[in-house]
């Protein structure tokens, strides 16, 4: 006779199955968005492509747009994990930049760039993306508070994170305006622009004519 524990799947396997299902749904949504455009497909089509039921889809996501923007959450999970392992006595902005570099080494930004560009022409996706950035802001503030302790005021933390995210969005808009929609972009150019703007922020936005990573002024 089997004991009750014989039928219990190990917790690690259950959690991995959830992660795999979530990823499969997100990948299916992204593939559809890339092939037919955001807003041009249904939840049922996502579920069919991912090999799950409609009910399973809604166990993980509220909408097709949520399934697309989950990549931001995943990237942030990884970045916060990397940030938490960096030396506590390292200058804060050096740690932020190091965490970004290491995270992009493990998970590139190509798909993030594509989704950012898609959101510019799809209001529903843009709305979901904005909510995703808001969640990111809250979580980054929590990560910094954990590292800096009670010595950092809410004003300091919220202002710092707001600057980091605003600069990141500026780099993404700059990339989207300069990079053709056709062609195979690995994400390296987007990564370089975000790294450049984070470095500018760390260095206090020095005059671009005196050696910052910004675009130099044209001389007359």
Number of domains: 2
CATH fold node name of the largest domain: Tetracycline Repressor, domain 2
Measured between the Cα atoms of the first and last residue, the distance is 88 Å
Portion in strands: under 5%
Global geometry: globular
Element-level helix/strand string: HHHHHHHHH
Question: What's the overall average pLDDT, rounded?
Answer: 88
Q: Give the full name of the CATH homologous superfamily of the largest domain.
A: Tetracycline Repressor, domain 2
Secondary structure: helix percent: 55-70%
The CATH architecture of the largest domain can be named as Orthogonal Bundle
Number of strands: 0
Number of helices: 9
Radius of gyration: 20 Å
The largest β sheet comes out as: none
| Top CATH class of the largest domain | Mainly Alpha
Coarse structural class: mainly alpha
Account of the protein in words:
The protein is mostly helical and 220 residues long. The chain has 2 domains: 9-61, Arc Repressor Mutant, subunit A; 63-205, Tetracycline Repressor, domain 2 (Orthogonal Bundle), CATH 1.10.357. Helix content is 70%, strand content 0%. The chain contains 9 helices and no strands. Helix 4 crosses helix 5 and helix 5 runs antiparallel to helix 9 (188-202). Mean pLDDT is 88; it is low at 1-6.
């Amino acid at each position: 006779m089997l004991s009750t524990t014989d039928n219990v799947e190990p917790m690690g396997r259950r959690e991995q199955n959830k992660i795999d299902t979530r990823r499969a749904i997100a990948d299916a949504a992204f593939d559809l968005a890339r092939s037919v455009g955001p807003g041009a497909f249904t939840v049922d089509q996502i579920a069919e492509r991912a090999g799950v039921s409609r009910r399973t889809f809604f166990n993980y996501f509220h909408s097709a747009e949520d399934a697309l923007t989950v990549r931001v959450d995943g990237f942030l999970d990884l970045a916060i994990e990397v940030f938490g392992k960096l030396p506590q006595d390292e200058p804060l902005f050096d740690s932020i930049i190091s965490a970004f570099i290491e995270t992009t080494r493990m998970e590139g930004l190509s798909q993030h760039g594509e989704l950012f560009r898609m959101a510019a022409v799809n209001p529903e996706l843009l709305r979901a993306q904005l909510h995703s950035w808001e969640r990111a802001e809250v979580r980054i503030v929590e990560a910094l508070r954990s590292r800096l302790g009670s010595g950092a005021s809410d004003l300091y933390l919220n202002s710092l994170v707001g600057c980091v995210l605003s600069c990141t969005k500026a780099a993404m808009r700059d990339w989207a305006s300069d990079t053709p929609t056709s062609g195979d972009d690995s994400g390296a150019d987007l990564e370089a622009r975000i790294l450049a703007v984070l470095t500018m922020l760390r260095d206090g936005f020095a005059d671009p004519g005196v050696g910052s990573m910004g675009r130099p002024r044209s001389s007359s």
